[in-house]
Design a protein that fits this description.
Blueprint: E1 2-6, H1 10-22, E2 26-30, H2 41-46, E3 54-57, E4 67-70, H3 72-83, H4 91-121, H5 127-147, H6 161-170, H7 184-194, H8 197-209
Parallel strand pairs: 1-2
Antiparallel strand pairs: 1-3, 3-4
Helix pairs in contact: 1-3, 1-6, 1-8, 4-5, 4-6
């Protein structure tokens, strides 16, 4: 059993996407970030950076004590290694997948997140900040669009944790002042993943807990 400390953000969706795809049993423990529940001492014992998601694996492969993990990319990699799924075993396929996972963690996520903040949440509209982060999000979509021009998924022919990491941020494109139709290959990839049964189930979890935009 996996205990998933979760809220309905792109980073939270990454983990439900994996768990639904892999069919792993899990229990959702909501952490309402709008109510600052991420600062609760019990949660900080699991996620010292006070960010969701986090997991506790009650049955790790070493048969030891329950294992806690924070940081969505680390969680995806751990779950892929635990199950032997969605991360290629061969050297080149593995590195191809991991570099795009880290591209999301280090680039698309932070830049799109700042885009969301200055476009939607900032108390003052700052044209310089909005332009900076919209422009950088556009650039990153262009990188992804080029990548997907000759392959069905980000790391090649198979769906992987790289796709799971990236998809929830692309799902928020209406928040980013972007039109997905301007990126034809991203649009095709996005629609393919949106139609997966596990994707529908993962987003249904979010809808039950906290109905939100995508």
């Amino acid at each position: 059993m996996i205990d998933l400390y979760y809220w309905t953000t792109p980073n939270g969706h990454k983990i439900t996407l994996f768990l639904e795809e892999a069919g792993l049993p899990y229990r959702v423990i909501p952490v309402n970030i709008a109510k600052n529940e991420q600062f609760a001492p019990a949660f900080l014992e699991i996620a010292p950076n006070n960010r969701i998601p986090a997991i506790v694996d009650q049955a790790p492969a070493d048969a030891g004590e329950p294992l806690s993990l924070f940081e969505s990319g680390a969680i995806l990699q751990y779950l892929a290694e635990k199950t032997g799924r969605f991360l290629p075993a061969d050297l080149r396929g593995r590195q191809e997948t991991l570099q795009w996972l880290y591209w999301q963690m280090g680039g698309l996520g932070p830049m799109a997140g700042q885009n969301h903040h200055f476009n939607r949440a900032a108390p003052e509209k700052l044209p310089y900040a909005i332009k900076r982060y919209v422009d950088e999000t556009v650039r990153l979509y262009g990188v992804l669009n080029k990548r997907l021009a000759d392959r069905p998924f980000v790391a090649g022919s198979e769906y992987s944790i790289a796709d799971m990491a990236i998809y929830p941020w692309i799902a928020r494109h209406p928040w980013q002042s972007l039109n997905l139709d301007d990126f034809a290959h991203v649009r095709r990839w996005f629609d393919t993943i949106a139609e997966r049964d596990a994707t529908r189930r993962a987003y249904a979890v979010a809808e039950r807990i906290n109905p939100t935009p995508p």
